[in-house]
């Protein structure tokens, strides 16, 4: 006969096993998704500007290539609206499986595309269509992944668990940079431009299978199961979100914009292109730059994980304040170091940047989940994230390229990134700390109270 203490031990062991499974699924799944997404961004500056937009001159081809990176962001809200609606209606898990397939399929097809020289304008047209599919997928992926992690988490470790899908971003950047760097060794020079760049895109087929198998084994979010049991699901969650919570969506979006504008200097491929441009002031080799970005992504991953852990100790708001202050320092340091034009100074510049980036990203999942009521949470976190990505990251590489070409100096980019960082900090200061608030549907009355300072009605 099983005693009460033995039953509790069995229950705890089962819970620990499920927590490990959720952690693995969110880390691996989001890493694969962001590998696909960032692979395109890095290839835009290194490859597509020459192969897909060869009908344009050098500077114009670079700007157009980065515009295709930003174009996908315009479709992320569509993905967020769709995923938010269905995620709040039919569940988080089903949405995650669909977004994984969409992202991986589009990435693999990019690896098979002919170049402009082969089929003319059809090549960049197909490239843009596939990038749009990636954007829709990315818009739906993030909200589902973070809610699966946070809603499964013990209250005292919510920030840490929420950082697991967050490390998928630096993890995806690390993986994409490493694979491209490895291929630049295997297929150097012209070989890389002819066929070497395609291999990382085609590898996505294998990664899709791995991600699908892992995600299939994860249980649905306990919060969503409770919503089904209590029949507390909103009939039109997106409409409710914008009618009742538009101020909160704006504040949450601007917090992420303050992070993503800076982050997309590397994830959007701008610094890689700037540092490898043979006619530019830096002129580093493609391999040196890609390995440096790989190393900085590893540091970013560590700092992101640390931020989630730290937010469980000092609160989401306090950890964000520390992070944005450090990010501001990194913004001031990055281009002076990169412009010294040595592999070590380049690595040091982007490594310092990752300290603040990690500490303004790791706690985001937990904070966003704690901001919105259960019945519209998927819609709230997904749409806030997607809007923040547009305002901050969508055209950050394009803006940076335009500023440098117009002013002739990276000082203008530093000013731009500093302003975005201060906007993010200001919005954090406008929020109350809701660390540890109950997330279940039975606590919706508490969750509906405004987290914005000085605002009684959301």
UniProtKB/TrEMBL annotation:
Residue stretches spanning the membrane: 22-48, 60-83, 95-113, 119-139, 160-183, 195-214, 248-271, 291-311, 318-338, 344-362, 374-395, 415-431
Record-level Gene Ontology MF annotations: transmembrane transporter activity
Domain named Major facilitator superfamily (MFS) profile: residues: 22-436
Membrane topology of this protein: Multi-pass membrane protein
Pfam families given in the database record: MFS_1 (PF07690), Sugar_tr (PF00083)
Subcellular location: Cell membrane
Cellular-component GO terms for this entry: plasma membrane
Protein name: MHS family MFS transporter
Organism for this UniProt entry: Corynebacterium mendelii
């Amino acid at each position: 006969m099983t005693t009460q203490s033995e039953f509790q031990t069995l229950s705890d062991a089962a819970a620990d096993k499920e927590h490990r499974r959720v952690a693995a699924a969110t880390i691996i799944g989001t890493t694969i998704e962001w590998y696909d997404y960032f692979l395109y961004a890095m290839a835009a500056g290194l490859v597509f500007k020459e192969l897909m937009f060869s009908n344009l001159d050098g500077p114009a081809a670079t700007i157009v290539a980065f515009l295709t990176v930003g174009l996908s962001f315009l479709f992320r809200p569509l993905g967020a609206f769709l995923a938010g609606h269905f995620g709040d209606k039919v569940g988080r898990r089903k949405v995650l499986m669909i977004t994984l397939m969409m992202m991986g399929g589009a990435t693999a097809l990019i690896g098979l595309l002919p170049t402009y020289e082969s089929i003319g304008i059809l090549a960049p047209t197909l490239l843009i269509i596939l990038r749009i599919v990636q954007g829709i997928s990315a818009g739906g992926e993030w909200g589902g992944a973070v809610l699966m992690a946070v809603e499964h988490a013990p209250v005292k470790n919510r920030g840490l668990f929420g950082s697991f899908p967050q490390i998928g971003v630096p993890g995806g950047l690390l993986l994409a940079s490493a694979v491209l760097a490895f291929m630049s060794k295997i297929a150097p020079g012209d070989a890389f431009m002819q066929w070497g760049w395609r291999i990382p895109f085609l590898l996505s087929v294998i990664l899709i299978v791995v991600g699908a198998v892992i995600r299939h084994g994860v249980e649905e979010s306990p919060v969503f199961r409770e919503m089904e049991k209590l029949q507390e699901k909103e009939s039109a969650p997106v409409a409710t979100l914008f009618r009742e919570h538009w101020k909160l969506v704006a504040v949450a979006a601007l917090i992420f914009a303050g992070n993503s504008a800076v982050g997309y200097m590397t994830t959007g491929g701008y610094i890689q292109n700037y540092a490898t441009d043979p006619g530019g002031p830096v002129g580093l080799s493609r391999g040196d730059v890609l390995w440096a970005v790989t190393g900085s992504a590893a540091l970013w991953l560590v700092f992101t994980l640390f931020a989630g852990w730290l937010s469980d100790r000092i609160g989401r708001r306090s950890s964000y304040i520390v992070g944005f202050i450090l990010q501001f320092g990194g913004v001031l340091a990055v281009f002076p170091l990169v412009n010294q034009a040595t592999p070590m100074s380049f690595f040091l510049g982007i490594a310092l940047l990752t300290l603040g980036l990690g500490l303004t990203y790791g706690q985001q999942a937990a904070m966003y989940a704690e901001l919105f009521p259960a019945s519209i949470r998927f819609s709230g976190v997904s749409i806030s994230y997607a809007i923040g990505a547009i305002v901050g990251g969508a055209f950050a590489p394009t803006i940076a390229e335009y500023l440098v070409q117009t002013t002739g100096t990276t000082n203008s980019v530093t000013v731009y990134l500093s302003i975005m960082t201060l906007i993010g900090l200001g919005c954090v200061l406008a929020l109350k700390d809701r660390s540890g608030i109950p997330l279940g549907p039975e606590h919706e009355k508490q969750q509906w109270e405004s987290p914005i300072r000085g605002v009684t009605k959301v």
